[in-house]
Design brief:
Length: 530
């Protein structure tokens, strides 16, 4: 089954990247880099339900461990999953801090200097060295930040340093990797707040409202062309007697000519769309688009309500900011937190739902990125357009999607904390003289395990096993606190985006396809899409 999943992920990434990359400026290395980075992100998210399934499969429905799941076997399974996360997260660090920056800067230099390849490589390596330095700093901070402060007040500085190295050796680098990945996850959280939250509202409402008619837009465009041409004639008529135009009129003529070229490109695009079979097909399935739009807005509202209840539960019942707003159980009912443990009993229903959630986040993120473009504060860097995305913009796109998918694991934890921590596990509590056992539900299991982790309870036979994903997500309390406040910001941006999307009218049928900075050569790609 897993080879089929990997093949499906690679095929999806290839189709996705090829859909948006420019046919005229496509580069093999940038294409491979984008496909590989996006595939690694999706594979790492696919490991989450596998992790949850394995810890759940070790125990029977009555709360006892299965015969084969002794201490050694359980440890081997946990280590296997942990090594899988080690490998994938290490590859993600390699992509984010070395491979993608190098390829990006290489193509930036290639546009400026087409001659010397060696010089381009050297310059790209020079800029990439800065990213490598940032990665090294994050790894060092994560490796030597003490999680447990020594209780001895009279301990020397050498003993404190020795304790740091002992902690680093006992964790086998887990803390360093977890700190680096958590730092990237915070960046992914910011990208999700910016793009995913807005895309969750923009995508379904655009499907429901649809686009304007190509014939109607073409009629309006023809009227605009005639108006611009008449304006040009009026200005140029001033110099029929040999008098030169004023500087103001020359600037106006230049602006009108650029406007006229843009309108004529729009005319060619609209004409191609109006005659294409794809437009007729989209008109035929218009009712289906409305159904999908209604479904997506319901899913978005379900996610938002679940996230709101989860955050409200943390605000009311958690131990506070210093603990990262971690709660010892679920006190408020959460729809997804109830649904996922039920689906988890019938494999692979929960896997399908988790995959659907991840793909939903990707599609909504892509909708947000395409509507907004890639910005650096108030500076617009790149536009994402079907078949016209430059190699550098494509690398930026996959970098953002990689970080968003990385943050998806915590989003799923926020939506269903019990499911991500323990799956469908149950445990037994000894009541009388080792002869009578009472089965407890999962909410009490959370408190039991946290006590075990903190106070190291003696009896380990009937304790629940925590997923490796949870350990990565909550290694540092301050990251958990950042995720908590990020969830509130996500909800706020979604609601603002929902209001903005409701107030906006229908999109143009060629929205984002024609801009004033496009060259006339971009019209050569019309036949590929229409």
């Amino acid at each position: 089954m897993f080879p089929c999943v990997f093949q499906a992920i690679l095929i999806f990434c290839w189709v996705y990247v090829r859909k948006y990359q420019s046919r005229r400026e496509s580069e093999v290395i940038s294409t491979i880099t984008a496909i590989f980075a996006l595939a690694v992100a999706l594979i790492s998210s696919a490991l989450l339900p596998v992790d949850i399934f394995l810890v759940s499969y070790m125990k029977n429905q009555n709360g006892t461990f299965k015969d084969w799941a002794d201490a050694n076997v359980s440890r081997q399974i946990e280590d296997t999953v942990l090594y899988g996360y080690y490998t994938l997260y290490s590859i993600i660090l390699f992509c984010v801090f070395l491979w993608i920056p190098f390829v990006y800067f290489y193509y930036e230099e290639k546009e400026e200097d087409d001659g010397n390849t060696c010089s381009q490589v050297k310059t790209a390596l020079k800029y990439t060295l800065g990213f490598i330095t940032i990665c090294a700093v994050l790894l060092l901070i994560g490796a030597f930040v003490p999680l447990d402060i020594p209780n001895k007040k009279n301990s020397t500085e050498w003993e404190k340093v020795k304790l740091l190295f002992e902690e680093f050796g006992s964790s086998h680098g887990l803390t360093a990797l977890a700190f680096s990945i958590s730092s990237l996850t915070v960046i992914g959280m910011l990208a999700a707040i910016t793009y995913t939250a807005y895309g969750m509202s923009a995508l379904p409402l655009n499907l429901i409202k649809g686009t304007t008619s190509a014939a109607y837009e073409r009629l309006e465009n023809t009227e605009d062309i005639e108006e611009v041409e008449q304006h040009l004639l009026r200005i140029k008529s001033k110099c029929r007697d040999g008098r030169p135009l004023s500087s103001r009129d020359r600037r106006t003529v230049q602006q009108l000519e650029e406007r006229l070229r843009t309108l004529r490109r729009r005319e060619r695009h609209l004409e191609s769309i109006e005659k294409s079979w794809w437009t007729k097909f989209c008109e035929a399935i218009r009712p289906l688009k409305i159904v999908w739009g209604v479904f997506f807005i319901i899913v978005a509202l379900l996610f938002t309500v679940s996230l709101f209840l989860s955050n409200l539960d943390k605000a009311l019942h958690s131990a506070g900011f210093d603990s990262g707003f971690i709660i010892l159980g679920t006190n408020l009912t959460n729809p997804l937190n109830m649904l996922l443990p039920v689906l988890q009993t019938v494999f692979p229903l929960d896997y399908i739902l988790i995959t659907t959630i991840v793909m939903y986040f990707i599609f909504t993120s892509m909708a947000g990125i395409r509507n907004m473009g890639i910005w650096f504060f108030w500076i617009r860097l790149y536009k994402i357009r079907r078949g016209k995305t430059r190699p550098q913009a494509l690398l930026f796109l996959c970098m953002i999607l990689l970080l968003i998918v990385l943050h998806t694991s915590y989003m799923i934890y926020s939506l269903a904390p019990q499911y991500v921590m323990y799956g469908s596990q149950k445990y037994l509590v000894q009541v009388r003289c080792n002869t009578f056992f009472l089965k407890k539900n999962l909410a009490f299991c959370i408190k039991n395990v946290l006590l075990r982790v903190t106070f190291k309870a003696r009896n380990k036979l009937y304790q629940c096993i925590v997923t490796r994903t949870y350990l990565f997500l909550h290694k540092f309390w301050f990251f958990s606190a950042a995720y908590y406040f990020g969830n509130w910001a996500f909800i706020a941006v979604f609601l603002i985006g929902l209001i903005v999307s409701c107030c906006k009218g229908k999109k143009s049928v060629i929205e984002g396809e024609v801009d004033e900075d496009d060259s006339d050569m971009s019209d050569d790609e019309l036949s590929v899409y229409y």
